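Reagents: none. Just compute today. Porin B.
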Amino acid sequence: MQSLRGSGFANCGVAGRGHAKGPTGRNISSGGLLMGNTWQDGAGRRPRRLRRALSRRSRRAALAVAVLPVAFWAGDGHAAGCFADHFAVPYAPRLEDGRGALTDRGIAIGGSYTGEVFSNLSGGLGRATTYDGLLTLSVNADLTKLGGWQGLCFHADAFQIHGQSITAEGTGGLAPASNIEADPATRFSEIWLEQSLFQDRVSIRFGQLAADTEFMLTEASGYLLNGTWGWPTIAGFDIPEGGPAYPMAAPGIRLAVRPTDSFEIKIAAFNGLVAEDCSERDAQLCNPHGVDFPIGDPPLVMGEMAFRYDIANGLPGEVKLGGWHHADTFSDLRFDAGGNPIAVSGLKGATIDGDHAFYAILQQMIWQPAGAKDEQGVTLFGRVMGGPEDRNFIELYTEAGIILTGLMPSRPDDAIAFGYERTGISDAAQAFDIDSGALIGRSYEALAELTYTLALRDSWTLQTTLQYLWRPGGGYTDPGSDKLLKDSTVIGTRSVWRF
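Predicted 3D structure written out:
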């Protein structure tokens, strides 16, 4: 993860996956309600793949809570080599054990464990309490030290995911209440090599990659726990199979160019699917351990440019502009090839070549107390993303929030965060609902989250969250009745241990 104050790449280090992702089916199922690239059956049940598409933000979500926002403001991380600590925080543990000797020889090993309890107090699918956990292990290797290949780094990581999803059991929302929600499994995620060139002004990364480690990131929102603050709902639902984001990854290649210390351009091409032959199943179940390495599908191409700057009194800010294009064919959500509503004709939607979306991100520190560390102060963030309405379940996504870090002298590493987001259902999906006989089509889902992060020890943080969800599912009908799901209220507590 790059610093706004610093200059360079996340040089072979691994940025925490701060946002989640979503799954998706590919179209609609007979007797089902249209949900973009996924569906609900006639009884209102959701396929298991929605548990992923409900967006879970972070392959390294456990670390994201404590470190993504800090990495956003951290000092210069450039030219730090394969072990650049992009999770550096004042309370980060120093590896004093045998791993120190390995690091000297070119190998770094680390991990974290995140455990959390969530309760849906009211609304949604009903009252529920769940526990889920994520164990993350990673290894980085400096091949300059190991084999004499200058500027070449290796990275691999794996997850052990367990527990239940409060989103599937309680809220019924599009945005997952937790950014570590996923189908229980033990799986590999990223496995790649990265070559740095021209004094680290250029880097090429190739292997099995996760897009949510480098694209669409709003690093300042890393203290928030809902999955949509990372890999947003619009990406999780509109990109086939949810895209290469937690807990999935896909074969790909990424080029990053940093012509100046304040400007960077990244472009990447991924295999367009994260699992093979999985049109009617959860991609996580089709590729349960992350070792299938699918290739040959129409590609997903992503690009992003970032500009970093300082305003008055040296307060840092960043603007990002980006987008993605998927080269597969898609189906019109409302009309068949003859121009007739598919809810009436029963035919498949008209074929459309390709899909795309564009996004913009703003992150800005607006106040910092005298003598504060780089990451301490008040930061605002915002993100907007939109795509064509005829082939996408979600057409427009917006979010904004504020982060207050280290404002109490007695608690310099604590943080308070608040965020609000709105997920807008596409006009075509709404019209499909009406064509199907619904009195009111699904229109939007909105979320507000308030969190407090308590830094207890060097390697341990405790976090509480309060979330309120308006119109869960965008106006999803309660199974067994014709009434919409009631607004959902969720509380949760998360513990993160880094080792």
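The radius of gyration is 22 Å.
Action item: order primers for follow-up constructs.
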